[in-house]
Amino acid sequence: MELLAGADQTVLVALHDLTLAARYCDRLLLMHRGRLVACGAPAAVLTPEHLAQIFEVDAELATDALGRPAVAFRGPLRPPVPDPHGPPTPHDPPTPLDPPAPLDPATPARPALRQGSS
């Protein structure tokens, strides 16, 4: 990134690391769900309001111990809502957002059904 930042050329890069973007980019485009939210210098784009709106976090653009730009995250905007039923147990059915369970090599695989068979 330092080589690219020092080049006398226009470089287009897509970054999800906000600190890296603030440190090396002269101009940022902040997008959310395919729409442009802000455009400009890192200090104008990475505002606490934009970070809260897009990422739902309490954060600000600050400087690190070496004086370089860094995004300082303080935490989520709202504390997570506890589940009224408590944490899931191993016997709870998976929800659509749960990752699939790992395959057990001791369990034989079921043969795929062919079209027309039951």
Description:
With 118 residues, the protein is of the alpha+beta class. It has a domain at 2-76. Helix content is 20%, strand content 22%. The chain contains four helices and four strands; from the N terminus they run ααββααββ. Strand 3 and strand 4 form a beta hairpin. The longest helix is centred in the middle third of the chain and has 8 residues, at 48-55. The chain starts with a helix and ends in a 42-residue tail after the last strand. Residues 77-105 have a biased composition (Pro residues).
Largest sheet: 2 strands, antiparallel
Widest beta sheet: strand line-up: 1-2
Oligomerization state: single chain
**Rg (CA only):** 23 Å
Count of strand segments: 4
Q: Which consecutive residue ranges, at least 5 long each, have pLDDT under 50?
A: none
Rounded mean pLDDT is: 77
Order of helices and strands: HHEEHHEE
* Outline type: elongated
Structural class, from helix and strand content? alpha+beta
End-to-end distance, in Å?
57 Å
- Helix coverage percent of residues? 10-25%
Total of helices: 4
Strand content: 15-25%
Structure, briefly:
Residues 77-105 have a biased composition (Pro residues). It contains four helices and four strands.
Furnish the topology, listing elements before pairings.
Blueprint: H1 2-6, H2 18-24, E1 28-32, E2 35-40, H3 42-45, H4 48-55, E3 57-63, E4 69-76
Biased composition (Low complexity): 106-118
Region (Disordered): 72-118
InterPro entries: P-loop_NTPase
